[in-house]
Design brief:
Blueprint (H helix, E strand, L loop, with lengths): L3 H22 L2 E6 L19 H8 L2 E7 L5 H10 L3 H4 L15 H6 L4 E6 L12 E3 L17 H8 L6 E6 L30 H30 L6 E6 L15 H4 E7 L8 E8 L1 H10 L15 H4 L10 E5 L10 E5 L3 E6 L9 H4 L11 H8 L4 H11 L4 E5 L17 H17 L10 H8 L11
Parallel strand pairs: 1-5, 1-6, 2-8, 3-4, 3-5
Antiparallel strand pairs: 2-7, 6-7, 9-10, 10-11, 11-12
Helix pairs in contact: 3-9, 7-12
Length: 476
């Protein structure tokens, strides 16, 4: 008897069974992104004002990352990093309102190759389409500055989730709250006099009112998140879905968005995956947005190390197999087109945070936060009250100076100084800490082909916007 055909058939059958079993184990992915939400304002991260019952409950069901970072505290660069798994210089989106390289690949490519439907609802703010070919899913406002935000509807999201039970999905829902204008939610839930302002925010009546409106939008965002979790449950997919929540960069207050301070580049990251991720856990593992794509590729059955990614998979951290991930998280800021040239680079090891201001003699200006729009209206009228108050209040003066006049080097101990109010860069006993972080930051810039000052120009921004990137990083 010739056993070869029999054995060959058995091997094929076994392979099919393995493939079928593996496909059944592949998770769906739901990633929900808040817009301009300072991580430390969330109760999960010690926030003392906001009420977020859905996020609080979600955190108890999964794993909270205490030390998650993004590279650039601006909407477009951080989303390009998140979706592509590459730092801003490599994917090409190192400026706000620009574009990634046309050759960049992202989650639709990576997970599409694995048989996933990959969709995006809400705010897009990445380009070009060839680099981010998401299927667009309706129901959520694309426009983050609309006043008021359009009413949302989960119908399209549910249809996407339930379209094909045999094909797994990855869905990103990019909410537009709590991005300015702060007009959504119930402002009356947050009496201004009851608020506990963070130490990096000046205390003026107009600032308190703005902060209350911002908090109302945080609570509104939390309600949207709760509805999405309920939609996933009603679709029958909650048990087989890896859910990620992240808060993007800091809010539009001085020292948060558009800066490399911790309240700018530190982000919330919470993960839930029933039966895979232990509930009610926290980790100090240092991770970065560039690591998320690698993690999702691995979780969905691919091999991330075969891709030209800057990040690496933290799947073992999700599973509780490791308590550490990366040694450093890196940050960069090109102030054009948000204001005059002011390039910044930064690095953290989770304990210390080093910031290098490349042109410290210049004054830092962010036009949206500090200036007039084209129609003559202020984006943030409270900023003017900081200036007015600084003539009589020393603390407010120090905060205005802190924001606009910065030294070349800043070093903070994040454990003792959460809001980075005490610069330790000139402390002799920390000289070696500073040297080590500066050395690693310089090495990272070299690996990314980052020229520093030369990059933060109107010419470089326009070239990137038109797909003619001037600086090409070295290959991996």
């Amino acid at each position: 008897m010739n056993y070869r055909p029999f054995l060959h058939g058995m091997l094929i059958a076994a392979g099919c069974l393995m493939q079928s079993s593996f496909a059944a184990e592949r998770p769906n992915v739901l990633m929900v992104i808040a817009d301009d939400c300072t991580f430390s304002d969330l109760p999960v991260y010690g926030g003392e004002n906001a009420r977020t019952p859905n996020l609080d409950a979600f955190a108890r069901q999964g794993l909270v990352f205490n030390r998650a970072y993004l590279c650039s505290a601006m909407c477009q660069p951080c989303r390009a990093e998140l979706y592509s798994g590459q730092y801003p210089m490599r994917n090409g989106c190192a400026w706000n309102h620009s574009a990634s390289r046309s050759t960049t690949e992202s989650l639709p490519h990576y997970l599409g190759e694995l048989g996933y439907r990959v969709g995006l609802a809400g705010k897009v703010h990445v380009a070009p389409k060839s680099a981010f070919p998401f299927e667009y899913v309706g129901g959520y406002d694309k426009n983050c500055v609309r006043n008021p935000t359009k009413a949302h509807d989960v119908t399209s999201v549910r249809e996407f989730m339930t379209r094909d039970a045999k094909q797994p999905f990855c869905l990103v829902v990019a909410l537009v709250e709590p991005h300015v204008p702060w007009v959504m939610g119930d402002r009356s839930e947050y009496p201004a006099s009851d608020l506990k302002l963070p130490p990096n925010i000046a205390d003026t009546p107009m600032t308190r009112d703005a902060f209350a409106r911002y908090l109302a939008e945080v609570t509104y965002m939390d309600g949207q998140f709760g509805e999405l979790l309920q939609t996933l449950e009603l679709a029958g997919e909650a048990d087989n879905t890896l859910v990620l929540f992240t808060s993007e960069q800091g809010a539009q207050f001085p020292g948060c968005k558009w800066t490399n301070w911790d309240t700018g580049v530190h982000t919330a990251l919470i993960a839930r995956w029933p039966e895979k991720i232990r509930a009610d856990q926290r980790t100090d593992a240092l991770v970065q947005y560039a690591d998320v794509a690698s993690t999702l590729i691995d979780a969905c059955g691919g091999i991330a190390r075969d891709k030209p990614l800057d990040g690496t998979s933290f799947l073992p951290v999700l599973f509780g197999e490791k308590s550490q991930h990366r040694e450093f998280a890196f940050g960069m800021h090109n102030n054009v087109p948000e204001g005059p040239v002011y390039p910044i680079r930064s690095i953290t090891d989770g304990e210390y945070h080093y910031i290098h201001n490349l042109l410290p003699a210049e004054m830092y200006i962010e036009k949206h936060l500090m200036g007039l729009k084209g129609d003559g209206l202020l984006n943030n009228p409270y900023w003017g009250t900081w200036i007015w108050s600084s003539s009589t209040d020393r603390r407010t003066y120090d905060l205005v100076k802190r924001y606009t006049r910065r030294p070349e080097e800043q070093l903070y101990h994040l454990i003792d100084d959460r809001y980075e109010m005490k610069n330790l860069a000139n402390r002799p006993e920390l000289a070696e800490v500073k040297r080590r972080l500066r050395r690693e930051l310089d090495r990272w810039m070299l690996s990314q082909g980052d020229p520093g000052i030369e990059q933060d120009t109107h010419e470089s921004h326009q070239a990137a916007k038109q797909g003619r990137h001037r600086f090409i990083p070295p290959s991996h």
